[in-house]
Specification:
With 123 residues, the chain is mostly helical. The protein folds into two domains: 9-49; 57-114, Orthogonal Bundle (434 Repressor (Amino-terminal Domain)), CATH 1.10.260. The protein has seven helices and no strands. It has helices at residues 9-22, 30-49, 57-68, 72-79, 82-89, 97-107, 111-114. Helix 1 (9-22) packs antiparallel against helix 2 and helix 4 (72-79) packs across helix 5. The longest helix is centred in the first third of the chain and has 20 residues, at 30-49. The termini are far apart.
Length: 123
């Protein structure tokens, strides 16, 4: 099988078709190696052309709360107080380092997303 970089949508579609045909190949075989190389090429192409930015920290928190059925009181229990939870969710207070550490530890949220800057509500 000839390997070459994925440079456009047609190459991408062809690589996906080849991956589909190679799925289930035994690792360490020529087919398994080809599959591994093609997946790497596809991942690189997707990262370059369709990169997804990390979400806004509050959007992440709100999404997690909704997905897990959590409420503001649950956030308050993690970050320290009900008023702080309210201010954070209403964008009147930034997340502190202590809050970020608590959310990362208690809710398994990625700290690298939580430390990103975000807009606060204007008074």
């Amino acid at each position: 099988m000839t390997m070459r970089p994925i440079k456009n949508e047609a190459d991408y579609d062809a690589a996906l078709a080849k991956i589909d045909n190679l799925m289930g190949s035994t690792p360490g075989t020529p087919e398994g190696d080809a599959l591994e190389i093609l997946v790497t090429l596809v991942e690189r192409f997707e990262a370059q052309h369709w990169a997804i930015d990390a979400p806004d920290p509050l959007a992440l928190i709100e999404h997690v709360m909704e997905a897990r059925g959590l409420r503001q009181k649950d956030l308050a229990a993690v970050i320290g107080s009900q008023p702080h939870a309210s201010e954070v969710l209403n964008r009147r207070r930034s997340l502190s380092l202590a809050m970020i550490r608590a959310l990362a530890a208690e809710w398994s949220l990625p700290a690298d997303v939580l430390v990103r800057e975000y807009e606060l509500a204007t008074p």
